[in-house]
Amino acid sequence: MGNIIIGTAGHIDHGKTTLIKALTGIDTDRLKEEKERGITIDLGFAHFTLPNGKKVGIVDVPGHEKFVKNMLAGVGGIDLVLLVIAADEGIMPQTKEHLNILELLNTKKGIIVITKKDLVDNEWLEMVVEEVKETVKTSFLKDSPIIPVSSKTGEGLDLLVQKIQEMTQQEFEKDLYSPFRLPVDRVFTIPGIGTIVTGSLICGCVSVGDAVEIYPKKIKSKVRSIEVHGESREKAFAGQRTAINLVDVKPDDIKRGDVISIPGSMQPVEKAVINVKLLEDAEKSLKNRERVRFHAGTGEYLGRISIINREEILPGERAFAVIHFEEAVPVTYEDYFVIRRYSPVHTIGGGKVIFVNPAKIKKEKIDIAVKGLEKIANGGIKEFILVYLSLFGKPVTSIADLFPYLGKNYETIRSAVDSLVKDNSVVFLKSGNEEILCDMDYYDNLTEKAKEIVEAYHLKNPFSEGILKEELKSRLGLESKVFELFLSKWVQEGYFEGSGKYLKRKGYKIVLNEKEEQMKDKLLKIYEEKGWTPPAVEEVVQLLKDFEEEKIKSILNYLVLEGSLIKLNDEIYMHKTWVEKAKELLKNHFQKNKEISVSQFRDMLNTSRKYALPILEYFDGIYFTRRIKDVRIPGSRISD
Q: Residue limits of the Tr-type G domain (predicted)?
């Protein structure tokens, strides 16, 4: 059966702890000070089993206004709330504040329990019930059962248990597939065992032996053992009160407010975009740059609000803002939060986290940013990914990079990506295990830029085989793996072609004009006539004084591309015919001899060492020969 976590809420001294003891037999006031003062100061925990066998965990929260931050630490992961109101006092200040907090944290179900029934008569009780109905008529509790009880006499407790069972008959929706998250509400040590943390497991499942990470400090650890309701377990699931024994973690390394999850699933958050609503009964507006207390999970954090596109939020209004934290915070996408004034301390609003660690919003993009945030707030993961790529994240990112922003598993994110690709909303590139997403506008602009760079190169270097791929990558400012994925797509789409390290426009061909054709013919004639003793480039320039030096060098490179000339080094080119003749002579030589020296090769060609050595080095480069000390032997491609 599913697991349920119930939380209490209500004003101080309205009988929350006494009610839990009457239901479970467990006194949740564990601190000495709580016993002495007779009030709940910190969170307390209990559990019991419903008649149908369903396990129920209970989080008891303090009701005193001084300990609302402790109350907030306990109600974040509950499924059902018991709003406790004393019959002899009725609605009190913390009753209303706790109700506001529950609303802000998106609590869905609850039961209103009127305690201390034995202290009032029926007429007074009916009056309190009417007051309660009026107070909750616009809240999530408007249709909830109201059950008067007496923890002292036991009257009404059976009906309360029955109602709890009825309201938990249907399975509460639990996210069992996202990376597990355990907001820590208690840390302690047991001699001989080590550090223990407890919390309400809000999603996923955790097993003994799992590697874990403690956020925001990013401390790595491992699960030594797990307990649920005091019993040892191999696994704990979302919806369970869970205690975890951590390996090699000191008590000082972890505190209430930290979150335990799988490695890499979250990140330390310095700032976050939030969708915040101010309560209708807030005494005054929330000003831009105001310092606030931010409550999420089990933690309280200080930060300053930067309201987007306005100077204040009025009571009852909702707006987007960026909160800049004074310390790293473990929150993620869609986490609910509550905001309290820094001083005097009271609850003023709350909402949901939209985006963590966003890129800075430029002034000229404020309106676009607000529209993007509205898409995320009203949409889901698909909308988040689109806005991540276009505004707050990186326009090119891997699916793996999205994990710490979303806190979801691979399958969930990949499903959203597949839908976006199907809608032609993003560019998806895959090579092996590498999966890259790209904003569509960014991709279109980048493609146009790449085409312009290549075209400009062709205009400036008309006789070149193309731009170096490395140069294009550098000018586009891309990482190697990303560039290779884009390049593969560009070639596939028919924009470019190339081989080796060069790239050119698809279908690009070198076309010579009449004068260039004349130059080409003269160059070929010179190199054909000179055989194995070709002139250096500077000598060729002197021989062809009617032509520009740069043009001559360009035509030489063109002839190399065409295959008519072979470039031996920067100064020496040779006609292909003579290179082939040299190859034949060498091949015949190696049929009778195992090796050849430079001097032997020089004499074979009746040339000088100046030319013989570059020819041999060229042959080494194409594996026709292989150098062993001062001689050459047949290479691996001698038979080609």
A: 1-173
